[in-house]
């Protein structure tokens, strides 16, 4: 499994697991399978959407997905999950 490291414009950094619920929400949004989308499309927008959904799902109040939300981000890194955790 992978996780996202989200760095925000306000300097905060958080890490979020890509859980089955996040994958399911992404598939509804993208209208295709999670792995197929990343294998075939390779769009950074998909990573940003996952960051948005992770933050939203964590209970944080975030702006609707779009330019205003993206302005709150500095970067989003995709990390391998630590198998020892």
Short description:
By secondary structure, this protein is of the alpha+beta class.
Written account of the structure:
The chain is globular. 11% of the residues are buried. The chain has a three-stranded antiparallel β-sheet, covered by helices on one side. It has one domain (2-80). Helix 1 packs across helix 3 (44-57). The model has no long low-confidence stretch (mean pLDDT 91). Helix content is 42%, strand content 24%. The longest helix has 14 residues, at 44-57. With 85 residues, it is of the alpha+beta class. It has helices at residues 20-30, 34-40, 44-57, 67-70, and strands spanning 2-8, 13-17, 73-80. The chain has four helices and three strands, in the order E-E-H-H-H-H-E.
What attributes does this structure have?
alpha+beta; 85 residues; 42% helix; globular
**How far apart are the first and last residues' alpha carbons, in Å?**
12 Å
Shape: globular
Spatial order of strands in the largest sheet: 2-1-3
Kindly name the structural category.
Answer: alpha+beta
The number of helices is 4
Number of domains: 1
How many β-strand runs?
A: 3
Return the average pLDDT rounded to an integer. 91
Evaluate the radius of gyration: 12 Å
The H-and-E topology, N to C, reads as: EEHHHHE
Largest sheet: 3 strands, antiparallel
Q: How large a portion of the residues is in β-strands, by DSSP E? A: 15-25%
**Which range best describes the helical content: under 10%, 10-25%, 25-40%, 40-55%, 55-70% or over 70%?**
40-55%
